[in-house]
Amino acid sequence: MRHHGDSSPPPSPNDPAHKRSDWATLSRLLPYLWQYKGRVVLAIVFMVGAKVANVGVPVLLKNLVDAMALRPGDPAAVLVVPAGLLLAYGLLRLSTSLFTELRELVFAKATQGAARSIALQTFEHLHALSLRFHLERQTGGMTRDIERGVRGIESLISFTLFNIGATLIEVAMVLTVLAVKFDAWFAWITLAALACYIAFTVLLTEWRTQFRRQANEFDSAAHSKAVDSLLNYETVKYFNNESFEARRYDESLQRLRAARLKAQSSLSLLNTGQQLIIATGLVAMLWRATQGVVDGHMTLGDLVMVNAFMIQLYIPLNFLGVIYREIKQSLTDLEKMFTLMEREREIADVPGAQALQLAANGSDAAVRFENVTFSYDPTGSTAAAGTTARTILHGISFEIPAGKTVAVVGPSGSGKSTLARLLFRFYDVQQGRITIAGQDIKRVTQSSVRQAIGIVPQDTVLFNDTVEYNIAYGRPGATRAEVEAAAKAAHIHGFIAAAPKGYDTMVGERGLKLSGGEKQRVAIARTLLKNPPVMIFDEATSALDSANERAIQAELAGVSQNKTTLVIAHRLSTVVDAHEILVMDAGHIIERGTHAQLLAANGRYAAMWALQQSGE
Question: Domain containing 289: what range?
Fold first, then answer.
C-alpha cells in the first residue's frame, strides 16, 4: 500500500518531549509585540498612571472622613474641606477610568498587529509545508487550533500586562503606604494573605490545566469529525450512514463533556479556597485597624482607608484564578499554534537558491528525469522495523524535449502521477535528479518551478467561489475578456453563459455544484489562462464524454504546440500523436517509442491498445 504520510504523527504540544515552557512561549510572542515598542511603553505609562490614581482614592477617602470630624455648624465642614476633597476624589476616580481607556486605545493597535502578524505567518508557513503534511492533517482540528491561538494572543497580552502586571504595581504601592503610614504588621498581614492566595491559585490552576488541555483536544477532535463528515456529505448519504456519523460525533462530544465537567468541578474548588484566604486576610486587617482606632493611634479615616485598600486589592485578586487560568489557556493555545509554525518544512529551498531561468518563449524548457528513484516513505515505520519501504520509481530516465509532448501510460499504481508530483517538487527524489532547461529543480526556488508549470489534474477541486474566480486563479488579475477566452478554449463558455448568473455563478464547496466534466473543463481553462512553458495533463479528459473529449483533446493539442508537455493518460487514443510514449509498470519504464513503433513491437502497449479498441 502506498504511503503518502509520515510514519509518525506530527508532534503534539501535549507530548512532554515537545512541550515548551510558558516562558518560551512568551519569548516567542514578545518580538511580534515589540514591533510596536512606542505604543507598549506609552500603554505602560498610562497603566501606572491609572494605578497611582486608584491608590490615591482611599487616601483621599481617609482625609474626607477625617475632615468631617469638625464641630457641628462649622462652615468649613460643608463649604471648604469636603468640597475640595470631594472634587479631588471625583477627579481621581475619573483619572483611573481615563488612563485605563487611553491605555486600551493606545495598545489596541499593538495587540491587533501582533495577532495579524502571527496569523499571517502561520498561514504562509502552512502553505509552505510539504504535501505529506497536508495529506495527513485534520483540517477541522488544525483550523480550530489556529483560531484559538489568534484569540489567545489578545487575551494573553491583556491579562499578563494589564491585569497581573497592574495588580503587582498596585500591591507594591499599597504595601508601601501601609508600612510607612502604619506599623509593619499591616504590610506583613497583606503580604502573607497575598502569598497564600497566589500560591494556592497557581498550584491548583496548574493541576486544573490538564483538564483544559483534554477539553481542547476533544474539542478539536469533535470539530474534525464534524467537518470531515460534512465535507463528505454525499458519501454519507450514499451509504446511509447519518446515524453512524452522529454516533461518532456524539462520542467525541461525550469525552468533551466529561473533560469540561472535571474542569468545572475543579474551578469550584479553586474559587472556594480563594474566598477563604481573602476572608481570613480581610478579617485580620480590619481587626488590627479596629484595635488601632480603639487604642487611639488610628483615626476612623485610617480604618476606612485600610478597608478601601483591601477591597481594591482583593477585587482584582478575586479574579486572579480566572485570569491565571485564562493566561495558562492562552499559552496552551498559542503553544499549539507555534508548534504548527515550527513544523519543519520537508521541501525547502536551498540557501541562496535563484529563480529558474527560462527563455521568454519557453523554447529551452526541456525536462529531464535522470535515474530518478523515489519512495514516499523511505524512513517510515516499516523501514524501522527492518523491512524496506516500497519504492515507487526505480531509476527512471527520460527526456521531454522543449516544445515536444511525451505521454506516460500504464496501469494504476505504476507511478505515473508520482512523476507530476516530483516535477512540481511536492516531494524530493532520493536518488537522481530532475532538470528543467538543464537546471536541477532542487537548486532553484520552488516558486519559480511551479510558476513555469501548469497542470490539469485528474481530480479537480475548486474554491467555493464564482466560476470567474476559479478560472482567473490561473493568473490572478486577468481581465474578464481573458477569462472568457480561456473558457471558450476549454469549451465551457457556452455552459457558463447559459447560467442565470453567468461567470458569477457560485460553484459550491470543492466545486460540487458542477459535474465532473464541468469541473475538469474549468481546470483546463484555468491552466490555459496561466499559459506556462511546461504543461502536465494528468488524465485531463477522464471525466468528459467522447464528443467533448475529442473537441478538448484537439484544443489541448493546439495549446501544447511549442510547449513542453507531459501527458499522463489511461485512454491510449489521447496520446497517439505524442513525440514519445512511455509505458510504465511497477515503477519501471518497460517500453518506449512512438505510437506506431510500440504497436509494431507487439508488446504491452499493443496489448493495451487492442484491449481498449475492442472495448470501444
Answer: 22-341
Asked if residue 226 belongs to a domain, the reply is: yes
User: In this structure, what are the phi and psi dihedrals at residue 564, rounded to the nearest 5 degrees?
Assistant: -75, 115
**pLDDT tens per residue across span 433-478:** 899 888 888 888 888 888 888 888 877 778 888 888 888 888 888 8
Three-class HEC string of 170-227? HHHHHHHHHHHHCCHHHHHHHHHHHHHHHHHHHHHHHHHHHHHHHHHHHHHHHHHHHH
For the chain, the distance separating the N- and C-terminal CA atoms, rounded to the nearest angstrom, is 31
510-513's contacts with Cβ under 8 Å and 24+ in sequence apart are 510/231, 510/461, 510/462, 510/464, 511/460, 511/461, 511/462, 511/463, 511/470, 512/234
Q: At what angle do helices 320-341 and 139-159 cross, to 10 degrees?
A: 130
Instruction: Say if residue 386's pLDDT is above 50.
Output: no
Q: For residues 406 and 568, give the distance between their C-alpha atoms in angstroms, rounded to a whole number.
A: 9
CA distance 447 to 348: 11
Q: Is residue 584 part of a domain?
A: no
Q: Which long-range contacts (CB under 8 A, 24 or more apart) does 303-306 make?
A: 304/58, 304/61, 304/62, 304/65, 305/58, 305/59, 305/61, 305/62, 306/178, 306/182, 306/186
- Please answer whether residues 566 and 420 qualify as being in contact, where contact means their C-beta atoms are separated by less than 8 angstroms: yes
For residue 354, the SS3 value is strand
Contacts (Cβ under 8 Å, ≥6 apart) of 313: 167, 170, 171, 174, 190, 194
Residue 434 grid coordinates: 530532475
**In the beta sheet, which residues pair with residue 367?**
400, 436
Q: Is residue 587 part of a domain?
A: no
Query: Which residues, listed in sequence order, are joined to residue 405 by a DSSP beta bridge?
Result: 565
Contact present, 104 and 158 (Cβ < 8 Å) = no
pLDDT in tens, 109-118: 787 777 788 7
Helix (H) or strand (E) holding 398: strand 393-400
Give the whole-angstrom CA distance, residue 173 versus residue 162. 16
Contact 89, 305 (CB under 8 A): no
8 A C-beta contact, residue 217 and residue 209: no
Q: Which residues of 487-515 are buried (b: 16+ CB within 10 A; e: fewer)?
A: bbbbbbbebbeeeeeebebebeeebeebe
562 within 8 A of 401, measured Cβ to Cβ: no
- Percentage of the chain lying above the pLDDT 70 cut: 82
581 versus 150: which is more confidently predicted?
581
- pLDDT reported for residue 279: 81
Q: Look up residue 313 and give its amino acid.
A: L
Cα–Cα distance, 471 to 479 (Å, whole number): 11
- Proportion of the chain above pLDDT 90, given as a percent: 0
Task: Kindly state the cell numbers that stand for 541.
Answer: 479528459
Can you tell me the distance from the alpha carbon of 171 to that of 387, in angstroms, rounded to the nearest whole number?
A: 65
Q: How many residues does the chain have?
A: 616
The residues near 55 (Cβ < 8 Å, ≥ 6 apart) are: 170, 173, 174, 177, 309, 312
Q: What is the pLDDT of residues 309-363, one digit of tens each?
A: 777 777 777 666 677 767 777 777 777 777 777 777 677 778 888 888 888 777 7
For all residues of the chain together, what is the average pLDDT? 77
Say how far apart CA 541 and CA 517 lie, in whole Å.
8
Q: Is 323 part of any domain?
A: yes
Output the nine-digit C-alpha cell for 310. Answer: 483591601
C-alpha atoms less than 13 angstroms from C-alpha of 400 in its C-beta half-sphere: 32
What CATH number does the domain containing 123 carry?
1.20.1560.10
Report the domain count for the chain: 1
Residue bearing cell 467525541:
252
